[in-house]
Amino acid sequence: MNRSYRNEYLFSEIYLESITQQPITDENLRASFQTIKEWREFADKTSLEQWITTYIEPVLDTLGFGHHKDSEELLVLFPDVDKSQPMSLCYVVPPGEDINCTLKGKHWAEKIIRNLRKHNFQWGILTDGLYWRIYHTKEPTPYETYVEINLETILSSQDYAAFQIFYFFFRPGNFTRGENGKCKFDIYKEESAKTTEYIEENLRALSRLKVLFRILSDFIMKVELKVILMISGFVFRISLQKLT
Known about the structure:
The chain is α+β, with helices and mostly antiparallel strands. Helices cover 51% and strands 14% of the residues. The chain is built from 7 helices and 7 strands, in the order βαααβββαβββααα. The protein has a 7-stranded mixed beta sheet, sandwiched between helices. The termini are far apart.
């Protein structure tokens, strides 16, 4: 697994690797990287408001999201700057706080999941600006299930290949629902489940073949032993007859 992202059971590992290795031909990829890197260099972390204004919102702008503040820490996301139809949320962890915290009042994963359900969205973003996560409300354990991108490491290492992974996940098109009510994340999830089922079925088939092979091997060994004993007995009788 690439060190710049972490998959906490949101998708199957094999499927995730396959989709993140697909080339993105967007000509704006490198320009977006440079723009976000420049915003990061001049970002102000002295307060949550300044952090959102000088960095979080510019990142969302660069990725193509429309947005507006719903509360101090919560941004409503739109598929474009026209802001016609909300599609998701971005919850921002205050500067200096641990994004992994689960203490009362600071359980950030619980906050994004609760707000997504309140607004009737299924997929959303949790970030402290350094780490960016995708959450899904329909998971059996939604607080512990996510994909995380370490944007800070990507920017500092000038890793365009890793930035492509960030660019792949955090784009408006993944959150936009089609006429069937599904977004691309839903499709990724379904394809991921099919990949897992396919692999598990092949593993079960392989296990059955191994059992069958052991049975056949044991049978063949027993037959060979009987043949050897029969031949040995036959040779012994012939030898005995010659001696007499």
